[in-house]
Amino acid sequence: MSTPNAAVTEAAASITPAQGKLGVMIPGMGAVATTLIAGVEAIRRGLALPIGSTSQMGTIRLGKRTEARSPLIKDFVPLASLDDLVFTGWDIFGGNLYDAAKTAQVLDNDQLQQIRPFLESIEPLPAAFNQHYVKRLEGKTVKTGKNKCDLANQIRNDIAEFKTRTDRQVMIWCGSTEIYMEQAPVHQTLAAFEKGLVEDDPAITPSMLYAWAALKEGIPFANGAPNLTVDIPALQELSKKMNAPICGKDFKTGQTFIKTVLAPAFKVRNLGVAGWYSTNILGNRDGEVLDDPESFKTKEVSKLGVLEHIFQPELHPELYKDLYHKVRINYYPPRGDNKEGWDNIDIFGWLGYPMQLKVDFLCRDSILAAPLALDLILFMDLAARTPSLRGLGIQEWLSFYFKDPDSAPGVYPEHDLFIQNMKLKNTLRHIMGESLITHLGLDYYGE
Question: Which pLDDT does position 1 carry in this prediction?
């Protein structure tokens, strides 16, 4: 193996080491959160492998193909060790995480019994919740306060207590999908937002209370749901001010993951798409919440934007201008967490002749989401320790994980999974002082 050059050594030295305990705070400790936490503990005990986690099982090529340098990502960048993760969070249903995992019915009983004492040792805190924003759920353990500012400061107090037990912290929203919201005047500046907290502005949602509290404490925030949360100017301003990274929203798990694989293939082969019909059936709490039209609209908007950005119909009108894209989500209790995503795609090729592709993805929603959440926790913590990343606010290089990535104002987001993967790995190369990979490859064929 070649000796690291001076640039590599200097870049690596600028990143604060991952020493001590990394505290993971999760609003919404249901199916995804319990699957994540139970999985991390099972992996720590050697009972399972972190399958699906890019940070744990992915490799990264460094230098030329002929150099044969492709270490594991976790051996290349200074990520927190899984042994150093400590979990806490908030939930509206009470009980410990073993109870929550049993209710979620994602993991089998034998697996849960192996780590039962660990799960029983974690009991979520009462949550900031308002049924106006999630119609189908009723809270049992809910914070009360005189206004939203009071509730947000109660969250900050919870964070302050957790800080006494951990060295660094990350917050990741794994709660339910809130009703559809559009940006309002209260979202435009930090001053307006903080005034709105005191005035109980209805455009400030519970997820925004958590995001504000985390960012005020200098803690990175990631959003696993499609809610309007940190993708508003006020919280983006706070993110930069506090050097607390933020990223996109809505974990890219099942159907949209497949869309961001197939759509780029049609585009690069210049095949037209006349229609793309997508339907989902799922029966977990997510399905119940999305059975409400207002919450469904939030998810629908998140899922619909993918094809528009990938196909760029304004640049390819003959192929995609008349694309009909329909998304449906159906609550079907017998299916539980085992979601079915079914797609019918009408494409056309040479001389306009039609063809069809049908995809039926029988997936496990939380099994797909848990490794994404783990990667985001570790990479957001890395961003917070990296001088060239922490002050940026939006971490666009983490678009890989989201249905609805955030990007700088005036810059369209990348949805193509393969471009996103390149962006992620090139960012890791960049912060470590390694050369970026362009795949040009001409230098292999020179004299």
Answer: 43
Total Cβ atoms within 10 A of residue 278 = 23
Mean pLDDT of 148-163: 98
Domain CATH for 313: 3.30.360.10
Tokens for 341, please give them: 């995503």
Phi first, then psi: give them for residue 390, nearest 5 degrees: -65, -25
> Is residue 329 located within the same domain as residue 345?
yes
Which residues fall within 8 angstroms of residue 282, CB to CB, at 6 or more apart? 329, 330, 331, 332, 335, 337, 338, 339, 340, 365
168 with 115, same domain: the answer is yes
- CATH number for the domain spanning 193: value is 3.40.50.720
Residue ranges of alpha helices (H) inside 312-356 are 317-320
Give the burial string for 222-234 (b: 16+ CB within 10 Å, else e): bbbbbbbbbbbeb
Q: Are 7 and 14 in contact (CB under 8 A)?
A: no
Same domain, 172 and 206: yes
Number of domains in the chain: 2
Contact 76, 15 (CB under 8 A): no
For the record, the structure tokens of 272 come out as 């037209």
DSSP-derived letter for residue 394 is B
What CA–CA distance (Å, rounded) separates 251 from 404?
A: 8
In terms of Cα–Cα distance, which of 27, 26, 96, 299 is closest to 178? 299
Residue 360 has phi, psi (to 5 degrees) of -125, 105
- 27-49 average pLDDT score: 97
Is residue 195 scored above 80 in pLDDT?
Answer: yes
Q: Which of 175, 172, 164, 167 is nearest to 81 (CA)?
A: 167
Distance CA 139, CA 131 (A): 8
* Burial of 87 (C-beta count, 10 Å sphere; 0-12/13-18/19+): buried
Per-residue pLDDT tens for 80-115? 999 999 999 999 999 999 999 999 999 999 999 999
Q: Are residues 397 and 301 in the same domain?
A: no
Query: Two tokens at 62?
Result: 């460094």
Tens-digit pLDDT profile for residues 365-397: 999 999 999 999 999 999 999 999 999 999 999
pTM over 0.90: yes
Domain with 136 in it: 6-252+367-431
